[in-house]
Amino acid sequence: MHLKGPQTLTLNLLWLIPLISILTTGSIIYYNLGFAVHTTEMAIIIVGMMFMLIGNYLPTVSYQFEKQTHPFYRGTELSWNRTKRVLGKSFFFGGLLMLLIVLFSSKVAFGIMLSTLVIVIINALKK
After folding, report:
1. Residue 28 in this model has a pLDDT that exceeds 60
2. Higher pLDDT, 92 or 123
3. Which of 9-18, 46-55, 110-119 has the lowest mean pLDDT?
4. Are 94 and 56 in contact (CB under 8 A)?
5. What Å distances lie between residue 34 and 28, 106, 109, 118, CA to CA?
6. In-domain check, residue 77
7. Positive or negative CA dihedral for 30, 33, 36, 39?
8. Contact 84, 59 (CB under 8 A)
9. What is the distance between the alpha carbons of residues 102 and 100, in angstroms, rounded to a whole number?
10. Would you say residue 78 lies in a domain?
11. pLDDT tens digits for 40-85?
12. Four-residue CA torsion sign, 24, 26, 32, 38
């Protein structure tokens, strides 16, 4: 069975629910045992994984699906193909960079998250 459109993204995002639950439960237990819990780093790791998942999924979205979900989209199929590749790469590498940088500093990773969002928004507005 081959799923298309939002069904694929929904199935791919379903694994995040147990992951977030396990991380939250583990951090509560860890905190109650007297250890320091870095919630900022956990949140950045989850957002980085979501960025990577969206960046991996975005190039598979078809032009027809985009026209159905956004009827006022005026771009051509060629511009949509270029846009989705650039946005997909931006999301994926931004998420990967967040996962790598969170090992060193959560403040730097937060800045990378914001800069990734700015780059994605600028690329989306350029068409």
Report:
1. yes
2. 92
3. 9-18
4. no
5. 10, 22, 26, 38
6. yes
7. positive
8. yes
9. 6
10. yes
11. 788 888 888 888 888 888 888 776 666 666 666 667 777 777 878 8
12. negative
